[in-house]
Amino acid sequence: MSPHRRKSAATAAGSALAAAAALLSFAPSGAAAPAPVPDSPPSAERTHDVEHFTPSGPRGYRPDVPARAPKRISDRHRPLSPAEAKADGAVSSLHRTGSTTERLDLVFVGDGYTADQQEDFHKDAEAKWADVTAIEPYKSHTDKMNVWTVDAVSNESGVSGDPTQDVVKDTALGSYFWCDGMERLLCADLNKVNSYAAQAPAADIVVVVSNSGKYGGAGYNRLTGYPFDGVSTLSSDHADSGLIAVHEMAHSIGRLADEYDYGQSGEYTGPEPEDVNISTYDADEMAQNGAKWHTWLGKDDPAGGTTGAFEGAGYYEKGLYRPTETSLMRDFSVREFNNPSREGLIDGFERYTQP
Ligand SMILES: [Zn+2]
């Protein structure tokens, strides 16, 4: 597990439950109780809950998806030619500012790019890096990050499920739209992601760029047992797909919570969450208690208006508050993080860059 990781109690409990459910579903009947989930390399049986996005932002639904690509996709896989195999796994640095131990190491891996298309992958990775660093506080903290690219050579160009659900492609990472039956949910084979990311000098966050013009992506932001903190997938040639990496990186770096709710999701009655951008306190209580983002209350906020406390956050309609009406942690209608989230991200950069 990465030393940078620290999850909120609610998140940790959620992952433990999901992992337990995954294990239980594979336990033979009559077998002893399953052992705790080991912090070990991924296995075929594992599932992960992923965040799902539409062009307007993250959606209130986190399906459990398998770590591996479905059989109909893996069955199509053929070995690379010797020349292709030689090019497979090549590493380049896109942005290098310091030692991996004192930087946040972001790794781009391409999927659905043939041996002849690796230059396209490099251009696409640069474009996504530009999308991320157009937004604060990433923009003013590029000196805290290294960016690596790992070439993954696919036998076929494009990815499964594009343009239609029946399309199956033989690609290095097994990316596929229509994951869990949802057109825009772009899953990948995490075992393969893991093996390519391991080629880079270090990997804190992995972005899988799938060679496609169709909007889509996914966020694997509650990973355990991998040497990185999070993975986001996104399509290469859709103008808005870079926002998926922007949002997912914020979960990993800033330990930020989602500021949306599922609608009809009832009232949160648990303890004050650890996440810096959601709270059980309304503005008055926060000011009285000197809690959470009380120092920002009433200040101009880059995400719009002034920082306050708006009910509905952390997947609950009631009982949890967010700092602004909207922000990149709620939807993509405003392309800014609010004040508390920016502060959380800046603190996160400090954690990654401490020697
Ligand atoms: Zn999210």
Observed structural traits:
24% helix; 8 helices; globular; binds zinc ion; two-stranded antiparallel sheet; alpha/beta; 16% strand; 2 domains; Collagenase (Catalytic Domain); 355 residues; single chain; Peptidase_M64_IgA
Give structural notes.
With 355 residues, the chain is of the alpha/beta class. The model is unreliable at 1-42 (pLDDT under 50). It has 2 domains: 9-254, 3-Layer(aba) Sandwich (Collagenase (Catalytic Domain)), CATH 3.40.390; 283-353, no CATH class. The protein starts with 8 loop residues before the first helix and ends with a helix. It has helices at residues 9-26, 71-74, 82-87, 118-132, 190-197, 242-254, 283-289, 339-353, and strands spanning 47-49, 51-54, 57-58, 64-66, 91-95, 104-111, 145-150, 205-210, 217-220, 230-235, 310-313, 316-322. The protein binds zinc ion. Zinc ion binds next to helix 6. Residues 1-31 form the signal peptide.
